Amino acid sequence: MASSSHVNFASLALPVLAILCCLGPRPAASALVRQQTLVLPYHNGRLLKGNVTLNLLWYGAFSPVQRSVILDFLHSLSAAAPSPPPSVSSWWRTTARYKGGPSNLAVGAQILDESYSLGKSLQTGQLAALASKAGYGSIKTRAVAINLVLTSADVAVDGFCMSRCGTHGSGAAGKAKFTYAWVGNAVSQCPGQCAWPFHQPQYGPQTPPLVAPNGDVGVDGMVINLATVLAGAVTNPFNDGYYQGAAGAPLEAVSACTGIFGKGAYPGILAKSCWTRRRGRVTMRSALMAASFCCRPCGTRRPPRARHSCEILILKSLK
Length: 319
Hints:
Layout: E1 3-6, H1 9-12, E2 17-18, E3 50-59, H2 64-77, H3 88-92, E4 103-113, E5 121-122, H4 124-134, H5 136-141, E6 145-151, E7 156-157, E8 166-173, E9 176-184, H6 191-194, H7 217-235, E10 290-292, E11 312-314
Parallel strand pairs: 3-4, 3-6, 5-7, 6-9
Antiparallel strand pairs: 1-8, 2-10, 8-9, 10-11
Helix pairs in contact: 2-7
């Protein structure tokens, strides 16, 4: 079985989290430098559009509560009754602006590998092997699917914490190609890299960490990285979709965004809350955490008046 993978945003940088992102200020006419519009080239490959099944393999020790947190998040991406923005589903709908329309995710098969069948130290090729096991049914029928491998806190993965927090790639089982993604629980290995801002950042300003919305630093960090690799998987599943730069190390949806992440935000510093005429001020309650990704879905067009707006991800509902 052949496989390939590539580094994406979850492996290069941590997403900026904000209480709320709103329309940012437009550059003044006298500004010396204007922000360039970022465009992700489309390389004419296949995308994962329409109904997409998520097959899960839980590798290692995950408690029922930990699994429920991640499953709730996955279900909310393509909720039957989408919530108005800001919400998880409204953020995910931005992927519909790429060629081919929306990607409607639904959880499919789940496998628990609590016996660590390949040991507690995994190579990238083994991730693909586990993914093919998780998505055996989908691969056999050639259904549109992402086979998702989730590793527990006591599992080491090649490159984890050194160059990546998660990744996605593709593999082949016979003549059938499949897409997979992986994210690991970093709580005991590198929470400052892969679970910020629920843990103090490893580098940069040592601001106090925020309370993990679900009370689990590692799993809440996994949710952030899951959103990233899934967005990359549907828009660049076989490394010939939407990306910028070299094919071996592409910048994808989310990872290529260099725009505004909320006023005053950068790695180690959270964005400030802001005002909009439409919504008024939004404050953060203990149950709310918003993860801000791109200013807009990279490589897509939006009305000029909204070009600085941020798409946001809510891990818990607004109260």
